[in-house]
Structure formats: structure tokens, C-alpha cells
Fold each of these.
Amino acid sequence: MSPDHAIGKSLPRLEGWEKVTGQCRFTDDLSMPGMLYAGVLRSTVPHAELLALETEAACRLPGVVAVLTARDVPGHNAVGIIVRDEPVLVEDKIRRVGDPLALVAAESKKAVAEALAAIKVSLRELPAVFSPREAMAPGAPLLRGKTNLLLHRKIRKGNVEEALARAHVVVENTYTTPFVEHAALEPEASLALREGNSITVWTSTQNPHFDRGEIASVLGLEQNRVRVVQQATGGGFGGKLDISTQCHAALLAWHTGRPVKLVYSREESFIASGKRHPYTIKYLSAANREGKLLGIKVEILADTGAYASYGPGVLTRAAVHATGPYYVPHVHVDAYAVYTNNPYCGAMRGFGVPQVGFAHEIQMDILAEKLGLDAWEIRSKNFLQPGMETATNQLLRQSVGIGETLRRVKAEVTETAI
Amino acid sequence: MKKRGWGLGCMWYGIGNTGLANPSGAFIDLLNDGTVILLTGCADIGQGSSTVLAQIAAEVLGVEPGKVRVIAGDTGVTPEGGATSASRQTYISGMAVKAAAQQAQQPLLRKAAQLLGVPKEELVCRDYKIFPFFDPQRSVPLQEMIRQCRRAGEMTLGHGWFNPFTTGLDEETGRGSPYATYAYATQWAEVEVDTETGEVTVLRLIAAHDVGKAINPMAVEGQIEGGCAMGLGYALMEELIVEDGVILNAGFAHYLIPTMEDLPEIRAIIVEEAEETGPFGAKGVGEPPLIPTAPAIINAVSNALGVRFFSLPLTPEKILAALAKKEGQQGRREAT
Amino acid sequence: MKKQLIQLEINNRLYEVPVNPRDLLVDVIRNKVGLTGTKKGCGQGDCGACTVLIDGVPVLSCITLAIACQGKKITTIEGLADAQGNLHPLQQAFLDHGAVQCGFCTPGMILTAKALLDRNPRPTELQIKRAIAGNICRCTGYKKIVEAIDAAAKEISTGGVK
């Protein structure tokens, strides 16, 4: 391409100069005259009925400006991108360790810590459930409503039983994957400023317009009264898609009329934020003698933790991608997202696909081994090409580069072989 | 003993939200000094979307990318861009920016078409000049056209938005077109396993990614290399220990993520199977690099040891346990 | 706790700041001196984002008491570019080589690299990796960081830039 083109050029990032000189402002780098510091009192038990919060002693401590509880939420006391099932401040029921119970704004971080320690919590612990399989069993403790099942996503294409009957080789294994932390290097942070009947929140986020809607709902404001400014954000990886500090900082600024900054410590970031879903995947693959995939039958059981977050989206995506980048004529996938009293799980880079990717790729290697093929051959016999249909019967017309990536990697391996 | 092995991992990844409308919008203001303000809802969280969007605007308008000032993710002034997730921003916000830039340049093209006596559809903007695509020598300066527009009372503003074509998924069968396009990748890993300690050293990663078109190859490589690092962590070390709902390793002292010493040589290969509906053929790359890394590494370990593994992360303990089991089985076979 | 006035020399300037004996250097630099380029990623000395140079040696400012730094020369990321705003070769190389993504680890990373190059102007790749191993980056996969440091080393040793 000619040098006059902007496309295809390895330009340094626009804000790079600010970032290498330390002049780039992340949220915690901002401060304002009269600014208060904030903190969140969190549950230390996984499942309980919240009976009472005694905040008077905390309120009386020097430097403490506000102590807020669920009563102080003027609007809707719930947030969530797909299901609004997560309380901004717990009103009656604790569903996980880390649930927010009360907020403090004070003149100093020290006063915040003292006030948080001075709030008395009375609760009645409830039986809890920590495994999705147990959570689906009859009689399991319920997090809400009548079932812990958040989502069951089905993919049905062709007839897997038929594929099994014709298969030369069938491989079935169970895969497990862990909870994973995003660990973006910048912890979650927000600074909120009320001006009359409007509020501005500077925050570290992957989705400022979603944050605007949630803050407006929580404060009971129309959306155009809320301005969210995405400040320089120190990584996200899906961990800054959910509401973290935004609504809490906004609530405190709304009540105190003063700017309020809320920044998580690393430990709080671990405790409060969403995780990558742990999966248990039962994966059955059937192939013919030549190594062509005939069918797959997959059951994905995911622990979505205490709140929905992006769980339904993550499991739907996992189900859709369960075949891997291969043409499979017969597909039967069941994906379940189940509430438990564990940390909640949501979006994390790959959105549920890394887990199934692990499973389908180990399956491919085992199939190859059983058929006397190598890892390249089995994949070459099965990769998707234009004109083929996916597991959801979507016809792929163009821009299907899996074969080319395979070819290029093989060429690189061959070239660099010693 | 140290044993070496290699393994493959492949993946596909739908760009954008699954089976949902997920539009993004953009505003462009072409100023009378030839600089540009681009307002986008797209949050740059470090992946480099602002730079990529500036390059797209610059390509359309024929200006230097460095002259595009990007205001991103400010709900007071920017239109909604949707989430920076689902590897969707280059594709979706990229198309929105392209549309906005094209609208902003319409008055300039009309003026230039008059001056040059060609239909405006035949004009291109490049390097601060407007010229017929078939005759670059016959050009008018971009800034002069902007000044003429201003004198005539015409603004050079544009807005644009894009929503990828998707359909919902059938409840019972999942039938549908959940994404307008997919990214694809293959990764290859070479490992060395110490059979005494169970320690895995990843020696080499080769990662080829079909991104449609690399708007900024260096940024694409950065996504690939960073994804490989995160995938290596997923394969070998990262696990949040949760007991009775309590996280037992809530901090970097006990939750280990890859450091520079854990990373092997990474060779990123960019494959460009242009996507017709994307900006200049681009799709997305944010998430895909993480996905094939773990299976490539685990398959490589299996290749080295002749043992299969079904659980992440593959810690030295799991490897030693599997090796002990294998030895026991072999011992039994030999005894019988 | 009683506050006392201490003098800190940061980037060749003297600052007089009131501190408590237990105040951490990172908080004093960020909140009292107002140099927010130094980042706080973990607060426990595990991630390296808060790295500053004290008498040329990389130190984790989130586990260092401010009061212990009197009479020492502290360098933060703000002190690297020269008075005219020209970037240090390391800063320029990080920019040019795409070694920066979110930028949160960048100040600590660059300062750690500077200490390395000051004592070892032509490090091997392994020496670079060793030197930076205590600085976590979640974005880049480190490859471009190593390349940037290597490029800066070459620039400094051929260009004679200090």
C-alpha cells in the first residue's frame, strides 16, 4: 500500500506520549477540592439473611461524612447487564462473600477504614451451595426464585445418535477449568461529582454508556442527567464490563454533594469483581475412518456464581462455539449456567470460548491418535470453509481464514525446524 | 529427565454480541485547519481502539492519523459505542467511524467535483488532496475545499453508525446467524517438561490469526502476544482457589500470572482474509489470541509425555501425579 | 501519630512534605507531591507498577516508608524526559515499539529498565528479562517491552544519550 495510506500502518498509539511520560491520568490520579474518600463494607459470609446494620457509631466518628445502606438508594437497587439481579447495596439477602452492605464517605482513607470497622452487621446465615451440580439438585439452597438454573442453551443440528452409529471412532472425556481473575493492572476506580441535579462520574470502564444507564437507574435520574467519562483505563479483559465502583461513588456524591473517589485495593478487586467461569465439560466426538468429524455431543456445566452478570451471554457463546472451527454435521450441545454462592462469573477475554476450546482441541488430538493421523492432518480434514454451515446452520460465505492460519503456522514450523 | 513436545490449538470466534443487535455510532468534525475531531463511544482500555479508529477516519478523509483527535467514551459528548468486548470495536465502531467520515467529507467532494468536472463518486481524498481516482495528478487541496465550504456556510460534520447483521438463536435448536463474521486462528506450542519436577517450560509459540485486515499491524501483534501470555497463564498457572465461597488467593502474591521470565519466543503471524462488511476488510483480534494457547500447550505436554490431561491449569502436581499413574500402569503391565 | 516535615529530593527538585512515620512513599509521591505518574497496582510489592529509582536503584514505593527516603535522590517517570520535553530513549522506544498498551505498568517498567541500562548499557535478552521479571504487565506479553529495551540500549550506546 502506498505510504499515503493510514490503513495497515504500525503507528504508535495516539496517547502513547502521555503514557510513557506519566502524564496520562487514570481515575485514581484525579482529585478535586473537597473530595471525600470512600469505602464499601462487604459481606464475609456466602449466604445469609441480612437482619440489620447499625451505622450510628460509624456516623459519629470524626471525619465521617456519610454512611449509606440500601435504604439510601433513591432509585432501583439493582444492576446487571443481562439480568438486573445484583443489589447495589444488600437489602435483605446476602448471596456471596463480597456482597456490598454499606458505603462510607469520609475526609480521609483512615476515617473510611475506621467507619467501616464500626458498622455492626447482624445476619442469619443460610445453608449455601458451592457446586453447580449440587445447586441443580432438588432441595438445594436457592439463591433466588424457584431454581438456581440461570440458563440452558441448546444447539441441535442433525442427529447425533445417527452419527454415533456410523462412527469409526468415538472419544468421550470430561474437562474441567478453574475460576480465573482478570488481574488488569489498574484496580477499579471512580470519581463522582454532583452538580445540582446532574452527576458526572469519571471511571475505569469498558462500557461507559452502560454505566450511564445503571447510574441513572440507581439514582432515579433521567439518563441525560448522568455523564460518564471513561478515564484512561488500565486494562479490562472483561473485568470492567460490570458495575464496580461507579454506582457506589455516584450514590455517595449524590448524598453528600461533594466529590467522592472510590478506588479498590488489589484485594478488594479480587473479592468484588467477576471471574472467568469454571466449566465442567463432557465432550463426545465421533469421526469416521478417514478422520472426518461426524458428530459431537457436549454438556457444559458452568458455575456462574451469585449473580448473572454476562453469564447467559458467556454460556450461549460457548455453546455456539463448541464445535471449534470445524465442520460438524451432527451437533448436540447443552450449556447450563447455574447460580451458586461462589464469586460471580461474567465476561473474561474469550467469553466462555477458551474453556470449550481447551476441550475440543484435546479431543482432536485424541481422535487423531486413535485414527493414526497427526495433529495437522485431523484438523486439515475438518476445518470450516466458505460454503459450509456452522453448528447453528449459519452459512459461511467469505472471510474464513482457519485453513490459511493452519497452513501459515505449518510453514513457519517447517521453516524454523532445526 | 527433560522431554520435549509440540502441540496445536485452533479456534474460531464470532465478532460482536451473540445474536443481538449491538450497534455503535460515531461523530466526525473536520476542522478548518484540516485537523479532525472524532467522537466515539468506544472505550480504549489499552488495546488501541482509539488509534485504529483514527487511522480509519484518516484513511477516508485523506489526512494524517496523528491529526485526528479522538474523544472516546464520554457519554456527555460521544454517541454510544457499545461495550469494548466481544472483539467488536474495530469491526463495528470502525464501520461507524468510516460512515461518519464519509458523511463529513460530502460537502468537500461536491465542491471538488464541481471544480474538477468529475462525478464526486470518482473522487478520493489522500494526503490532503482530493483527486479523481484515475488521475491523481489533477487534484485540489483538501484544506482549500474546507475553506470554500466554510465561506459558503457549509459545515463538514458527519455522523455514522453500524450494526452487524445477526439473527437471534432459536430456543430449541440454536438455529440462527449469531455473528456477522468470525475470526480464526491456529497456534503451535513447543514445550519442555521436566519429569522430575513436573515443571513445564514453553519454548516457543507460533500464533497465526485471521483478522480480516490489520488496520495497525503492530497493535494486532500486541494483542496476539498479550493473548498468548494470558493463555499461557490459563494453561499452566492461573487458578483462583475458592473454598466455601471464599477466595483463598486474593492477591498477586498467591495468584500467579505470567511474568517476563515465563514467556517464550512468540511469533505472531497476521493472516488477512478480508471481511466484505468490515472497515477495509477488518474483523477483530482482541480475544482470539488467548483461546488456542492453552490447548496448544497442553497438547504439547501430552506429546512430550504420552499422557493426556483434562484439567486446567496443568500444574506440576498434576503432571507428576499423571506420570506416577502411568508408571504404575506400565509396572502392572510388565508384571503380568 | 504526629506528622513531621521531611525533605524529599524528587527528579532534582526538593519538596518539603508533612508525613506520618508510617506513610508510604507511593502515597506521598502521588498525593502530597502530586506526581501521579507512579502507579499503585497492588499495594503489596507484588506487581512493580509503583517502581521508582532511589539513588539509581529500582525500589517498590508501595512498601517503602517515605521517611526513610530523606537525603536520597528519587527519580519518578516524570523525571525522565529532559527539560525541553525530549523523551528519554527508553520512553521513545516504548512508544515506537508498541511496548505500551494500557500504560499502567509502563512507568515502573521504564524505570526498572533505566536502572538496568545505567548499570549495564548492553544487556543480553536474558538479562533484560531477568531485570524486568518483577514487573507485571497483563497486556503485552512482554515481547515488545524486551524489544523496546534492547532498542533503547542500542540507541543510548551509539547515540551517547544519557
Note: Chain B touches chain C at residues 45-48, 218-219, 221-222, 224-230, 251-253, 257, 259-261, 263, 266 (CB under 8 Å).
Amino acid sequence: MYKILSKRTLGPQIREYIVEAPEIARVAKSGQFIVLRLHERGERVPLTIVDADTRTGGVTIVVQEVGKSTREMGDHFAAGDDILDFVGPLGVPSEIENYGTVICVGGGLGIAPLYPITRDLKKAGNTVIGIIGARNKDLLFYIDQMDSVCDELIVMTDDGSNGNKGFVSNPLHDIIASDREVNRVWAIGPGIMMKVACNVTREFSVPTVVSLNSIMIDGTGMCGGCRVEVGGEAKFACVDGPEFDGHKVNFDLLMSRQRFYHEEESCALERYLASEKKEEGALV
Amino acid sequence: MSRQKQTPMRQQNPQIRIHNFDEVPLGYSEEEAMIEAERCLQCPTAPCVQGCPVSVDIPRFIEHIKNRRFSEAIATIKETNSLPAVCGRVCPQESQCQGVCTLGIRFEPVAIGKLERFCADWEAQHGGATHQVLPTKEQHVAVIGAGPSGLTAAGDLRKKGYQVTMFELFHVAGGVLMYGIPEFRLPKEIVQREISALKAMGVKIELNKVVGQLYTVDDLMSQGYDAVFIGTGAGLPRFLGIPGENLNGVYTANEFLTRTNLMRAFLFPEYDTPIKVGKRVITVGGGNVAMDSARTALRLGAEESIIVYRRSEQELPARAEEVEHAKEEGVKFQLLTNPVRFVEKDGAIAGAECIRMELGEPDESGRRRPVPIEGSEFVIDADTVVIAIGNGPHPLVPRTTPGLDLTRRGNIVADPDTGQTSREGVFAGGDIVTGAATVIQAMGAGKRAAVAIDHYLQEKRAGKE
Ligand SMILES: Cc1cc2nc3c(=O)[nH]c(=O)nc-3n(C[C@H](O)[C@H](O)[C@H](O)COP(=O)(O)OP(=O)(O)OC[C@H]3O[C@@H](n4cnc5c(N)ncnc54)[C@H](O)[C@@H]3O)c2cc1C
Ligand code: FES
């Protein structure tokens, strides 16, 4: 059992949890993830490690409530409650070194995994430009945290409700196309965002790292469900990644595989929401 | 009693069982077991004992059954086999004990596996003897991986008085017995019963601990473990390496079976993990894993389940009983056939283009090598494909343990008699050493390693004094 030390709402259906897992906290590095299972009937859910505190033994994760399990976690798991299984750290850590100037691009929930990488890149001596974006201002989070580890931070929303109006790839393109030298880019977010960002950086041959969130079961290289195509070869996102050379990733395949259980996921969510309603009714 | 024929074991009707996950063979009654035991010739040479990888004293336990001494029978088995309920169900008896049974020369061999299962089930019903554990010693052994090899090594070491802690990456112990072999062949309750017995002896099991990620073998040694046993199995799925393998609807057997068995996807949405099975399912491969996948597909609602295997029926590596059960259930066999490419429609799998094969000269394994017949390509329509062509060694521990000698294929090099690796104090056994093999072989390796670890630790102790 793994105790939830704290829970905080970052936006509509976006929550941050700190979970007590001292062994993991001691060795976790940026870029790695955990797999959790809420209860006996739960599925194994992979989530990026956002922060780890060796003092309190807390491991921070950010959860967007998109499906049944994440919704259930938001509704029923509070500080003081226990999570049944919490496994990690999994995956290969980010390659942090002093590259010179780095742009860190985060879209939507991708801002969460991007934050520790940005922080460590800054610590390693890089000049760091952050670009974060979301559909609207409510879905943006970690602006202050990102600001504190970036030399420059650009905020974008699709509807212009916060920062500039447009996609994160717009300023990314502008900076790279200007005469500023950019040595490396990290781009983390929805498949389509990473794909567009990679198209931009490919044109200018700027090496780009992406983090792939494919569907996972074990998270340790045993099922192959997480496989992605990188440079024409099958790789396991859980043990060979989750970070890969973005210019070699087949994003269309990634996105198509991510949608494979769409029907089942909607069915599970609807069923859950219906049962929640019933319960609410019973309480009234 | 008939000398010629085995006493049949009652089993679920195929038409009914393809709609449930309950165990297929229902077990012997006491009378049936005694009748079958009567068939044993009690021949003085007892080739069956040599045929058994852990040398169970088969004639003796069968004699006990014959005389209705069931508790003595199970005690006899347990002298050398700590997981009889499992082995009675999943061992390839036809190529081990029963394959060399003297009665089998003229008639059907004694149903040794079924009798073994009977004894274990009898004990579970009547409450068995608890294991004797020697007084606890100072020394502490880490066992990595809670599959049959690790569980056996842990149990034997604990009996000798060592403190034993197991590290398992999944949320339950049991290895392939839990995530791979289906419920209808090996009820998970039985596996968990065996694991509870280990815990009752004082073996500590740390779940959710991924060695190689959370800590390395060297970390464990410096945390004060006096010896380490690695039994991390062959968990790495192999692929065919043909176009279309990453399409939606193409599963590795590991994923297909893990979703179903470990995550209980057959109970979705009661359980949260989904699985998607189409009307027509192709399983590529011919071993136990393939049979399990093809039979699981039927139970998950497939109307047609087809095994595609590149050699002929004779070479099918699966247990004979599994092939038989699969056929009874209506699994079709497309033999001497190999997929060359998967066909796509709208981003998902639509079928497999296959080529017919013929058997040529024998290869290194002694089996005749399948050779493609040029121009014989044809397409089998399918909406789900399961690839069950074998597994490689789980790479996490080998990759993170410097100084550990590996084979070209990435298996750990270990002495077959002791499990000793190239690193002092580090032993290994089971599928991580041999490549994907059998439960009983993994157990045998765990047993031998426990003996060797005991020697090693005794010497270490003597050296300190
Ligand atoms: C579907 C299927 C059906 C089979 N049917 C039969 C059959 O009928 N009869 C038969 O005899 N054999 C059968 N086998 C083969 C048999 O199950 C294996 O040979 C046997 O389980 C090997 O035992 P093991 O202890 O070496 O490894 P495993 O059972 O693979 O156990 C290894 C354990 O180590 C854990 N692990 C791996 N890496 C780490 C790590 N880094 N840190 C912590 N833990 C780790 C794994 O999670 C696993 O629990 C079958 C196999 C499969 C997959
Ligand atoms: S999640 Fe199973 S192999 Fe990656």
C-alpha cells in the first residue's frame, strides 16, 4: 500500500498527487515513470514522475481524468488514502547535459513530465526557453514552476485566453527560424503536438527528444503492448524509452495504437459515471 | 481396472467450457485414483523416476494411493516436489515420467500426472502437513523473480533456516503461473495456495519491486544480502519481424495472456483492463503458449480460432493434452504454414498473408526444417492476431549486473548443477538461464541452486569463524 500524502487540483480534471514511496523517491530521475493500480480490480496506469522528495519519500504525479480509472482516482482517492500498487521508477532517465540552448515544449498534460526535465536542464547549465500551451487557460498549470526554471517562458493557448493565441509549434518555429542558435529541443504532449513540433525542428535539423505515452501493461518490457516504431524498428516505450529521437518516431502509428481501446474506455467511463450518479441519488 | 487404458478423468464438456474460464479436467475421485494406481507395475527399474526432472519417487507414491494412504502419498511427492498441484497439471508428462513408463511400452502409460494432481488436491481438501523450518540463521538470501524457479529456491532455503526475501516486479507472485498459464488450465487459487504456504514458512515477498530499475543486484549485495538467486524468466516477447506486426489487433501472447489472466480482462468491465478479440483469431506458433492463446480467444468470444504453425502436427511442441483439448474445443490447425505479412485495413489488422511450407533436412534441433514453397502465398482473414513464437530472456537484471556472463542470446550463464554464475554469491536458474522451458525444469534449477547456496553460505560462515 502506498499512501497519498497530498492532493491538489491544478485545473478542471487535472490533479497533482504526492504519493509516499520512499524507495522510488530515492532513485527516481527525470524522464522516468511509475505504474499504479488503485485497487484489486484496477488496471495498471503509467504516469510520469514529476518530482521526487528524498526527505519526505514523496513521489509527485499529475493525473488528467480522461478515463474511468483516472476519474475514479480523482473522485475517491484523497490525501491519507492508500493506492494498492505503485511501481517504479521505470524507463530510461532523460539525457541531461549542457547542450547550450534548449527549448522545452510542453502541450496540455505534457507540461507535467516536461517540468522536471526543464529543471534539470537548467541546473546542468543550459539556457532554457520554455514554451507551454493548452487548449485554454483553465487547462494550463505549472506556469510559475516552469517560469522559475526557464530563462524565458512563452505561454500559448489555442483560444488566446492566456498568453498568446496559437499552438506551441508557432513560437517554436519562430525561434528556430530566427538567428538564435538552438542546440536541442524537448517536446512532450499529445501525439499530434509532438509530430508537428518534430516537423518544425526537422526542417532546421535541431535534435528533438520526445516522450511517448503508449498503452502499457507491465511497464518492464514483458508484454510489447507499448511498442512504437522508431527509425523503422519496433521499440518498447517502457524500457527503451519513453524518450526517443522525435525525428525517427512514427507518430501516426503511435496515435492509432493509443486509440485502440477507445470504445472499451468510453464504455467503462460511462458505466462508471452512471454508477456514480446512482450512488449520488441513493445518498439524497 | 484395465491394464491397457488409463482411467479417464472427467472433464468439462467442450461446448460448455469454451464459454467459461473454469478448469477443464475435473480431477479423480479417490476410487478412480486407486483404480489408476492399480495399473502401475511397480517395476524394479522405475524408469519414471529418472524421467522426472526432480526425481519424485513415483512408484512409492502410487503404491500409497493404491492402499488409500493419501497423506503418505502426498508427503512422498513433496519430499522432492514443492508444487505438485501445479506440476500435476502442467508438466509435459508424455516426454518425462510417462514417456518412459514400462507399462507404456505395450499399453497406455500410468497417468502419473493425473495421480500427482489427485494427491495435491486431496491434501488441499483435507489440510496437509506444514513444512518444517530449521531455526532461523543469520544469513539472508535475496531471490529475484517469483516464478517457479524463485519460489522453489526460496522455499528450500527457508526450510534450511535462511532468511529469504523475494523481489517480484508484478503485483502478485507466481510468474508465468499467474500471468501466462490460463485459469482453465491452472486455477490461480492453486498457485496462490502454494505461495501462502511459502509465506507461512516465513519467506518475505516484496511485490512491485523491479530489480534493475529500483535497485541492482549489487545494491542488494551491499544492503547486506549474503547471496542472490536470479529467477527472472523469459519474459521478453519475440516477434516475427514481418510487415504489419505493429498494427492494432496484433498482440504478443504475453500481452494477450497477461491482460486475460493477470488483469482479468475476461471480466471487463467489472475489472478495469480491456481486451479486444475479433470474430476470427489467428495464433501463430505451436507451443503451450499458442494453445493457451487460441483457447483463450474462444473463451473471449472468437467464433473461429486458428493456429498457424510452420511445421507439421508431429513437431507441435505443446503438451499432448493441450493439443487434444484445443481440438475438442474446435481450434483449427493450419499446419505447415507461416505468415509473411499482415494485411491492413483502416489502420487495423485484416488478415495474414501466409506461405505454405514443407519439411526439409533436419536442423540443429533435430527436427526437419520447414522450407517455404515458392508461390504458395494465400491470405487468411482475421481481425485479431496473437504472436506466440517464444520469449527471450528478461533483460533488466542481466543488463544492470556488471560482470555477469551472458550467452549470445542474453541468457545468464550458470552451472547446470549449482546455478553458480560468473559472479561470486550470485546464482541463477529457470528460464533466464535455459531459455523458455518448463515449470518443472525451472523448479529443478531452483532446487539445485538452493543446495549450492546452502554450501556457499556454510563455507562463508566457516570462513568468518
Ligand atoms: C503461456 C505459457 C504456458 C506455459 N505452459 C507450460 C506448461 O504447460 N508446462 C510447463 O511445464 N511449462 C509451461 N510454460 C513454461 C513455464 O511456465 C516456464 O518455463 C516457467 O514458468 C519458468 O519459470 P521461471 O521461474 O524461470 O520464470 P517465470 O515463471 O517467468 O518467473 C519469472 C518471474 O520473475 C519476475 N521478474 C522478471 N524480471 C524481474 C526483475 N527485474 N525484478 C523483479 N522480478 C522480475 C517476473 O515478473 C516473473 O514473475 C508455459 C509458459 C507460458 C508463457
Ligand atoms: S508495457 Fe509491456 S512491454 Fe512495455
Note: Chain A has a mean pLDDT of 94.
